[in-house]
Amino acid sequence: MAKFMSPGLASRCSKEQKQQGHGLYHLTAWGGEDVLPGGLYRLLYPHKKISIDLEKSFYSDHELQLIKDADRLRRKQSDIYDSDDDDDEGQEIVMAQDLEDTWEQKWKQMNLASRVTEADEKKDHTSLNRRLENNLVLLVKEKIGNEDIWMFPQMEWMAGETMRQTAERALSNLSETRIEALFLGNAPCGFYKYKFPKTMRGEDTIGAKVFFFKALLKNKSLLTNKKKGDYVWVSKDELKDYLKPAYLSEVNKFVIDV
Question: For the chain, what are the domain ranges?
Answer without folding.
Answer: 132-251
